[in-house]
Amino acid sequence: MSSLLNHHEDSRDECDEQLRRCVRELRTALSSAETADAERERLVEQLCVAALPMAYRVAARYRNRGVPTGELRQVAALALVGAARRYDPCRGTDFVPYAVTSVRGEIRKYFRDFTWSTHVPRRLQERHLAVRNRTESLTTELGRKVGLEEVAASLGMTLEEATEAEQIGELYSCESLDSSPSDSTVARIDALGECDAGLSRVEHRHELSRLMVTLDERQRTLLWLRYFHQMSQSEIAEQVGLSQMHVSRLLRQSLEHLRKQASVPVPAAA
């Protein structure tokens, strides 16, 4: 096993030759009913090690897409092991194309299922990738920046579908609220505004102002002293020169008047 691992540093031609030899040995073993299970397992393991550089080359095609290279290699290696265990030479399929297809499929599945920060239907994910890849290929072919209309036309999409597919990419990753923008040292969560408790009372204050003008000056004064200055009825009576009973009656009448006025619909502004 250690001797095979050393071949990872060899040239690509040497690695490919080693891979072909391992495939031939596994083919021979699988075609014989006398091969022991332990020997088959050893040959599968040997094939996986020999094919690992190939799997890494497939993974390298998906670099710079938001997933660390080491993580891509892990997915590729697991997919390679699965392909080697499932490989059946009796079907007439060569191992290398079969393994490459399996590794590529698992990596794409990993991107689809585990790397999006927000759940996006597979149909929209594939459409987003198609628009992005076609934009890159058209830019290379034409030697200039291409518009979304051109990309949509080449893919047989409507402009609305292409626009949606392009915008879907914004859901791929989200910034943490605990992180800081590149031009600031303040965390995003610390820069967010807070709810103003007074905002919920704006409408009530506006309604109360409308109702208070329907009272006379004495009634407004009594209500102001009672509910804004938190004075008792006795203190109010002493200040305005009335009896406490009279103050109580005036307050009750004023509140009843306000309740009636509040139930009257306000005419819409012209």
From TrEMBL:
<feature type="domain" description="RNA polymerase sigma-70 region 4">
    <location>
        <begin position="212"/>
        <end position="260"/>
    </location>
</feature>
<keyword id="KW-0804">Transcription</keyword>
<dbReference type="Pfam" id="PF04545">
    <property type="entry name" value="Sigma70_r4"/>
</dbReference>
<dbReference type="InterPro" id="IPR007630">
    <property type="entry name" value="RNA_pol_sigma70_r4"/>
</dbReference>
<protein>
    <submittedName>
        <fullName>Sigma-70 family RNA polymerase sigma factor</fullName>
    </submittedName>
</protein>
<dbReference type="InterPro" id="IPR013324">
    <property type="entry name" value="RNA_pol_sigma_r3/r4-like"/>
</dbReference>
<dbReference type="InterPro" id="IPR013325">
    <property type="entry name" value="RNA_pol_sigma_r2"/>
</dbReference>
<keyword id="KW-0238">DNA-binding</keyword>
<dbReference type="InterPro" id="IPR007627">
    <property type="entry name" value="RNA_pol_sigma70_r2"/>
</dbReference>
<keyword id="KW-0731">Sigma factor</keyword>
<keyword id="KW-0805">Transcription regulation</keyword>
<dbReference type="InterPro" id="IPR014284">
    <property type="entry name" value="RNA_pol_sigma-70_dom"/>
</dbReference>
<feature type="domain" description="RNA polymerase sigma-70 region 2">
    <location>
        <begin position="52"/>
        <end position="113"/>
    </location>
</feature>
<dbReference type="Pfam" id="PF04542">
    <property type="entry name" value="Sigma70_r2"/>
</dbReference>
<dbReference type="InterPro" id="IPR036388">
    <property type="entry name" value="WH-like_DNA-bd_sf"/>
</dbReference>
